[in-house]
């Protein structure tokens, strides 16, 4: 049996969750519009790219983004792929946010993204060319962009949750309540793996 490749990603929007999920695949990707490997898709003839998106492959999400970025309409992508229009529109939002200056709040940027790339496509950000995560964090903090933590209501508001969990995002307000109790933190561990014999 091979890896199922599942990841869990929680965000305030679908775009944010998708970007986090792509980063969690442990393929060296920083999300859509976020790494130099996507530049190779700019060299693929558009007709070939439009043919590629009709077939589900592990690279399809990146091919979809490149197709939309190169001007193919949401309707055409939906027709070629059979993917629900809502999901294609969400990908188009990520494409549009890459060109926005400054970007819309909660635009679905990868958590590694920082203000140094605002106004330019994410795939060309310096972090792809050797800038360290510490440099990106320093740039975010100097621009006043700080992570906040939101709470997932594990009891769907039916009664008080005694085992809530939290996720990081970029918003105005923290939802984590102070506590004197001991806490546990579980860091993302990459994709769910199901290997033969394990």
Describe the 3D structure.
This protein is mostly helical and 198 residues long. The chain has a domain at 14-142: Carbamoyl Phosphate Synthetase, Chain A, domain 4, CATH 1.10.1030. Helices cover 32% and strands 5% of the residues. The chain contains 7 helices and 2 strands, in the order αααααααββ. A two-stranded antiparallel sheet has the order 1-2. Helix 3 (46-52) packs across helix 4 and helix 4 (60-69) crosses helix 6 (85-99).
Strands, total number: 2
The biggest beta sheet is recorded as: 2 strands, antiparallel
**Uncertain spans, ≥5 residues at pLDDT below 50?**
101-129
| CATH fold label of one domain | Carbamoyl Phosphate Synthetase, Chain A, domain 4
C-alpha end-to-end distance: 10 Å
What is the average of the pLDDT values?
A: 78
SS strand fraction = 5-15%
CATH C-level label of one domain: Mainly Alpha
| SSE string | HHHHHHHEE
Number of helices, where a helix is a run of at least 4 consecutive DSSP H or I residues: 7
CATH architecture of one domain: Orthogonal Bundle
Strand line-up in the sheet with most strands: 1-2
The secondary structure category is mainly alpha
